Amino acid sequence: MRSVQRHQVELRACDLDSLLPPDHAARAVWSFVQGLDLEPLYARIRAVQGRAGRAAIDPALLVALWLYATLEGVGSARQIERLCVSEEAWRWLCGGVRVNHHTLADFRTRHVAWLDEQLTRSVAALMRAGLVTMQCVAQDGLRVRAHAKAASFRREPSLRALLGQARQQLERLKCELHEDAAASQRRRQAAQARAAQERQQRLAQALAALGQMQAGADAKSAPAAAARDDEEPPSATPPKPSQPRASTTDAQARVMKMADGGFRPAFNAQLAVDVATQVIVGVQLCNHGSDSGLLQPMHQQLQQRYARVAPQWLADGGYAKLADIEALDRQGTQVSVPLPASRNPATHLHAPKRGDSPAIAQWRARMGTPQAVAIYKQRASSVECVNAQLRRRGLLRFNVCGLLKAQAVLLWHALAHNLQRLLSLKATATTAAAVG
């Protein structure tokens, strides 16, 4: 009888390249990375020949790891580090190079400008190849949970009290650090001092964000208050002013209404998608809870990226701001946005209103035609589909703090999505050529 022997040491001749099939997604990611402009990333490496310093990891490897991780729905640097040891596809990408989670996490959020440039270059290449025409663009907002917890939001008195405590703790740790002569104890105290200093900085940022929110609230309430003074008699009991709150963890996060109706700390991720191909052509991250007023900035962004104006623009009813519709009409873009519902049931929704400009009157009349209804239906099959795919790949919550770092994560998702669409478009073109 032959029994199993699992402790017997075996020597097998095997190379990493034979571990993956030729059509594996990791090979497609590596091929895509080889076509990117990596010179700005190489220029930032300080360890060069002839000088002291540890050899740096090739940026191409780090870019490939994060693109493949985004496609696989992996958003943790520690998990990537473990996968690079245990999984064959990740080992193939590494090619014998060991990576740690600190390097991966820093690289992910450090090159926002480069990521934004690569998004422009990749879409422009698709446009030159005739795969993307950008004749019709659909825009939508995606509320993504912030890293901050709801319990981290504090009002101004609490923030000032916490800031005072953080300053006292930092001063006490600095004094202990100078007085203690033990090296190990000094290192621990230095780490505690750094943590206290970072907390103090976060609290100061939260107080600054409170000031900005209060200034914005005062600017918005002044015209409304003036209108009420002209229309209504003064009330005996003035309304209680609302007190804004800011997060001690992420001062730039804001509490927003989510898709399920609840309110949570989040960021507003704006996406512009080419309707014909579902390729992301523009991204923008902000902390505005509403989509109103965000139509024109995205339109200007696409003009700056590609020097082209989309003839058709689709968006949902949250973007129905008359000033934006007029601005896009002057640029030669026809906007398809549903009309806001009227509180008067006798009002004809598509009839021009008093004070409407010619562009607004045409928009109201156009949205009642069957052609406009048919065009607007394409929004659900384009940008809404892209939103669902990003959610499936893990864009549910940012695990970084701040608008800049969250913007980097959003750009990684946009690049990974466009890579997937590029592979699909090329496969479709190849099949059509073979059939033809």
List the keywords.
alpha/beta, 436 residues, transposase activity, two-stranded antiparallel sheet, 10% strand, 8 strands, coiled coil, IS1182_transpos, six-stranded mixed β-sheet
Structure write-up:
The strands form two sheets. Strands 1, 4, 5, 6, 7 and 8 form a six-stranded mixed sheet that branches. The protein has helices spanning 25-34, 39-43, 59-71, 77-86, 88-94, 101-110, 112-128, 156-179, 183-231, 295-306, 322-330, 358-366, 370-376, 383-392, 403-435, and strands at residues 136-145, 153-154, 246-247, 254-257, 263-274, 279-286, 312-314, 334-336. It contains 15 helices and eight strands. The chain folds into three domains: 16-46 and 54-110, no CATH class; 114-147 and 253-411 and 424-435, no CATH class; 152-227. Strand 7 (312-314), helix 11 (322-330) and strand 8 (334-336) form a beta-alpha-beta unit. The N and C termini lie far apart (61 Å). Residues 163-201 form a coiled coil. Residues 16-110 form the Transposase InsH N-terminal domain.
Write the layout of secondary structure elements.
Elements: H1 25-34, H2 39-43, H3 59-71, H4 77-86, H5 88-94, H6 101-110, H7 112-128, E1 136-145, E2 153-154, H8 156-179, H9 183-231, E3 246-247, E4 254-257, E5 263-274, E6 279-286, H10 295-306, E7 312-314, H11 322-330, E8 334-336, H12 358-366, H13 370-376, H14 383-392, H15 403-435
Parallel strand pairs: 1-7, 7-8
Antiparallel strand pairs: 1-5, 2-3, 4-5, 5-6
Helix pairs in contact: 1-3, 3-15, 4-5, 4-6, 7-15, 8-9
